[in-house]
Amino acid sequence: MTENNSPIDIESVKQWNQSLRSATEAGMTVLVDFHAQWCGPCKVCTTAASGQYLLKIILVRCIRRLPPRFQQLALQNPHVRFLRVDVDAQKAIAEKYQVTAMPTFWVIKAGKPVDMLRGADLQGLVRLISQHGGPNPPVPPLPEDAEAAKVAGNAFYKDGNYTEAIEKYTAAISLAPNSGALYGNRSIAYLKSTPPNLDLALADAQKATEVEPKWGKGYVRLGEALQAQEEDEKAVKAFETAVELSQGLAKTEAKQKLEAVKKRLGWH
C-alpha cells in the first residue's frame, strides 16, 4: 500500500499488473479511475457548504492533478486500492477494459472486474465503494509463469486462436492447478473451438466450481457448458447459483443468461 493510501497513477502495464497482484494478495478491492487530460467531467472538484459537498464540473484544462474527492475517498477507505489510468497514455489497459467514455470507474476484486460506473457521479462512486470495499479474503496471486501463460492465452482467445489459447491455459493450470479462473477460461475456449469439445468444456467448468465454489463466474461457465450439451434445466441451476454469488456486472450477466435459458425452456 502507498503511504496514506493515496491514489496511484499507473505509468506502465507492468506497474498495472503488479498493483493488481499485490492488491489481490492483500485482500484489497481495486477502484480504477480511467480518465483523460482533455476530459472536462474527469476534473470534478468539491467544496464544502452547510455540511454538504457541492459538485462543480470544471470545464477547463487542469495541470495533471488528482480530483480532490477521489483523493479523499482513498484516504477514507484503507481497504480499497485506488488507481488512476490515463487512457491516452495506457491504451492497452483502456482497450482491455473497453473504456469508451471518461471518466469510467472499474471495480476489480481478486484480479477480476466486478462492477463499473461511467460519468462523474460522486454518489455512484461512493455506492461502489460501499458495496465492494471489503476487506476481502486474501487470495494468493498466480505464480509469475502461470500469470504470463494466462495473459498469453487471453491474447490468443481475443484473436480467435482458441487452440493456442487452450495450450497456454493448460500450461498455466499445470503451474496453478487451484485457479478457478484458469479452468473457466479453458472451458469457454473449448466451447469456442471448431469443432467445440463439449465434454472437456464441461469438465473444466465443473472443476472451476470445485476449486473456487464461491466464484460466480465459474457457475456461468458451468451453465454455458451445460447449455451446449442441451442440459438446459441443469443450466438454470448453475446460472441461479451464479446470480446468488455475483455482484455488479457479473450478476447482470448471470441474470441475462438465466432469463435466456428459462425462455428457451418456456418457463415464465
What does this structure look like?
The protein is of the alpha/beta class and 268 residues long. It has 2 domains: 3-132, Glutaredoxin (3-Layer(aba) Sandwich), CATH 3.40.30; 147-265, Serine Threonine Protein Phosphatase 5, Tetratricopeptide repeat (Alpha Horseshoe), CATH 1.25.40.10. Helices cover 53% and strands 15% of the residues. The chain has 11 helices and 7 strands. The chain has helices spanning 13-26, 68-76, 91-96, 122-132, 144-158, 162-175, 180-192, 198-211, 216-228, 232-245, 248-265; strands at residues 8-9, 29-35, 44-49, 52-57, 80-86, 104-109, 112-118. A 5-stranded mixed β-sheet has the order 1-5-2-6-7, sandwiched between helices. A two-stranded antiparallel sheet has the order 3-4. The longest helix has 18 residues, at 248-265. The N and C termini lie far apart (49 Å). Keywords: Repeat, TPR repeat. GO terms for molecular function: Hsp90 protein binding. One of its GO terms (biological process) is response to stress. This is Thioredoxin h. Residues 1-134 form the Thioredoxin domain.
In a nutshell, what does this entry contain?
This protein has 268 residues and is an alpha/beta fold. The protein has helices spanning 13-26, 68-76, 91-96, 122-132, 144-158, 162-175, 180-192, 198-211, 216-228, 232-245, 248-265; strands spanning 8-9, 29-35, 44-49, 52-57, 80-86, 104-109, 112-118. It comes from Mycena sanguinolenta.
Total E-strand runs? 7
Q: Which stretches are poorly predicted, pLDDT < 50 over at least 5 residues?
A: 44-66
User: What is the domain total for the residues?
Assistant: 2
CATH evolutionary superfamily of the largest domain: Glutaredoxin
Briefly note the CATH topology name of the largest domain: Glutaredoxin
3D shape: globular
What is the radius of gyration? Answer: 20 Å
Helical stretch count?
11
The overall average pLDDT, rounded, is 84
Physical arrangement of strands within the biggest beta sheet = 1-5-2-6-7
CATH architectural group of the largest domain: 3-Layer(aba) Sandwich
- Structural class, judged by helices and strands? alpha/beta
Approximately how much helix is present in the residues?
40-55%
| CATH C-level label of the largest domain | Alpha Beta
* Binned strand content: 15-25%
